[in-house]
Design goal:
about 400 residues; alpha/beta; TIM Barrel; 8-stranded parallel beta sheet; two-stranded antiparallel ribbon; about 40% helix; globular; binds beta-D-glucopyranose
Length: about 400
């Protein structure tokens, strides 16, 4: 995976090369005005929804206009229920959601759960792309349990890996799945939020994604006039991708979202699913470290990583790519892109993997949470009870340091 490889490079350029000079991560040129999309020719409804095609009158409508800024603020402190429903089958990644988790999460002071869901593993590959009823029932159960504990719920579409490689071929299926999801949940309370796609990337380029955003909004809004949409940018849903995101102006009930894992060489050190050059463990936050760290051979083969470690080992905090200012600069860019987008922003994922030492994880998580809160962002930590876990399922207890980082004691 080439995941987020450009991001650390960008940070390096920003924080090391130019020592204090304000640098833009990308030219702030206004994007071209959105060409209105031709209305999508609706597919024959009997091929999409043989049993459950809603009549137009079935479109849910809000009792009063919904303010996305209020909706974004309401998300408050959140946590991702990662590694469960976005595994190919729930349980395959070691985590099966339990009723008790919802009480734990609510009692600990969280307001929101984000539920990553791999719908694409549970839907027909051919029209009408029907989503398996028992899987839908499982998602119903998650939403109901969260609501019973007073938690807001964001459901997304996660790991639809095929659409990132063949966006054209998968568009019809993507929209058909969203039509079914939106139809099923259209009468749910408005503290259910819908996030069309997690971290678009690869061939689902910013340009293609912006076009698909128009279509998925149309599809959802045909049946659901209530639920706030949560939309991230392409290029893995980071801050850079956010800068290229366009949401049609007539969609007023939408929040922008971004994910934050900077510096990646810290948050993803030793993570099994990223490239070998990220394998140097012992990276601490904040840097510089007391003892110099020698990168592993795979890291030494990549020039920007060599430079990154040189700076990591030697630069004072202010200029260190693994220091506080590297983070605040990035978050300031998020604020800027949010303003350009004209939408409130939600930090939908951030976290540091368990191969980093716990004190550094707590330091980083505390700092990112505080800086996000200063900028008015609600947030959701990645994630509850697996490799980034704020909750330790084996010990059956919270990782107190991480929990306090996320839900400070007042
Ligand atoms: C991915 C996870 C991954 C996490 C951190 C998420 O968006 O879906 O698989 O663990 O980001 O890399």
């Amino acid at each position: 995976m080439n995941r987020k490889r450009w991001l650390p490079l960008l940070l390096l350029v920003l924080c090391v090369g130019c020592q204090g000079t304000a640098q833009a991560p990308a030219a702030d040129t206004p994007g071209p005005t959105r060409t209105p999309e031709p209305t999508v020719t609706p597919l024959p409804t009997d091929t999409l929804q043989p049993t459950d095609t809603p009549e137009p009158a079935d479109r849910s409508e809000p009792d009063a206009p919904i303010d996305p800024y209020v909706q974004a603020e309401r998300l408050g402190r959140g946590v991702n229920l990662g590694n469960a429903l976005e595994a190919p089958r729930e349980g395959e990644w070691g985590l099966v959601l339990q009723e008790s988790y919802f009480a734990l999460i609510a009692d600990a002071g969280f307001d929101t759960v984000r539920v990553p869901i791999r719908w694409s593993s549970h839907a027909l590959n051919e029209p009408p792309y029907t989503i398996d009823e028992s899987f839908l029932a499982r998602v119903d159960w998650v939403i109901e349990n969260a609501f019973e504990r007073g938690l807001n719920v964001v459901i997304n579409m996660h790991h639809y890996d095929e659409i990132f490689q063949e966006p054209g071929e998968h568009e019809e299926r993507f929209l058909a799945m969203w039509r079914q999801i939106a139809t099923r949940y259209r009468h749910m309370p408005d503290n259910l939020y819908l996030e069309p796609l997690n971290e678009p990337h690869d061939r689902l380029t910013p340009e293609r994604w912006n076009k698909l955003v128009v279509k998925v909004i149309d599809t959802i809004r045909e049946v659901d006039g209530v639920h706030t949409l949560v939309i991230g940018g392409a290029e893995w849903g980071g801050i850079q991708g956010l800068s290229k995101l366009k949401i049609p102006e007539d969609e007023t009930n939408a929040i922008g979202t971004f994910h934050f894992y900077e510096p990646f060489l810290f948050t993803h050190q030793g993570a099994e699913w990223v490239e070998d050059e990220y394998g140097t463990t012992g990276v601490r936050w904040p840097a510089p470290p007391e003892t110099e760290l020698t990168p592993i051979p795979a890291a030494l083969e990549v020039p920007w990583i060599v430079q990154w470690f040189e700076a990591y080992n030697t630069q004072p905090a202010r200029y260190n790519p693994c220091g506080p200012q590297a983070i605040t600069k990035e978050l300031d860019w998020a604020v800027r892109w949010g303003e350009k987008l004209g939408r409130p922003l939600w930090l939908g994922e951030f976290g540091a993997y368990s191969k980093a030492d716990m004190q550094s994880r707590v330091n980083w998580t505390t700092f990112v949470r505080e800086e996000a809160a200063k900028r008015g962002f609600s947030y959701a930590y990645w994630e509850f009870g697996a490799g980034f876990g704020v909750y330790d399922r084996e010990a059956k207890g919270w990782n107190e340091g991480l929990l306090r980082a996320l839900v400070p004691q007042e």
